[in-house]
Amino acid sequence: MFVFKNNQISFELGDIHFGGSPGEHPTILVGGLFFKGQPIVNNTRDGTFDEKMALDWINTGISMVQHTGHPLILQIYGRTEKAIERHILWVSENFDGPFMFESINSKTRIRGIELCQEVGLSDRAIFNSINISMKPEEEVALRNSPLETAVVLGWSPKATSLEERMNIIKEQISVANQIGVKNVIVDPGTMPVGAGYGLEHRTLLAIKTELGRPTCLAPHNAPSAWNFIRQSEFNNESIHLATVVASSIAAQLFASDCIMYGSMIRTKEVFTSVALIGNAISSAIAEANHVLGLDRDLFDPPTFQ
Length: 305
Prior knowledge:
Elements: E1 10-13, E2 16-19, E3 28-33, E4 41-43, E5 48-49, H1 51-68, E6 72-77, H2 81-94, E7 99-102, H3 106-118, E8 125-130, H4 136-143, E9 149-153, H5 162-178, E10 183-187, H6 199-211, E11 216-217, H7 221-224, H8 237-253, E12 258-263, H9 267-292
Parallel strand pairs: 3-6, 3-12, 6-7, 7-8, 8-9, 9-10, 11-12
Antiparallel strand pairs: 1-2, 4-5
Helix pairs in contact: 1-9, 2-3, 3-4, 8-9
């Protein structure tokens, strides 16, 4: 629940607002599809999946948007070029909003960029991500594409301090500008518990304070690699879900505009929890604006009752 003195950059993708001052717009939630281990996935190489279950997950997300006012973006993973093609095309036919796409494979990411241009989806797509490991071929593909929105990842194995993280972020924002990416969402990077988890929260505040940029975070990465909850007495779905919700709320409170919460199997729980804290943020910022004499529009949660 912060009020930043400097101007906060914002942009729109579809009817979703990214960035701005805390409380001005609802926190955006990004639900993951087609990742290895999800029950919808049949084969990661050819991109086959349970379409009925995937559609049920999407419809649940759409319903939660209507209930809470918090927007939904779909996070599409593809292991191979064939898989990313199949996933993007299917999502575009079954979901009207923006989507984010990613892969651990450079050629697959490039194919995603090219496909979005070929079928007219570049204005709905978010590339994830511009980072220190991005290959020159990806930069060329983005430069030649009408795609204008991307995540900038502020992570490096050598960036273990706030200053080092911010330097990486500034460098990658410069790369984004050079290759024609107009809309940047900054992800400071979430590390596992014990390997730097927590620094991203400090970095979120620094991004907002110094750069005024829209931010995002994938907080579910921290508990997903936490050995503590792999012990037999804690290794169950309810405890795992509790850690995902807790890490998502922490990101929300530290001014992340956009939260990648992992598998869409958790949609109801995460949306409901974020809606609760969204009410707290709305009330707190309204009081702060009054005290500071600020005239800023605020998100009015439909769950405020």
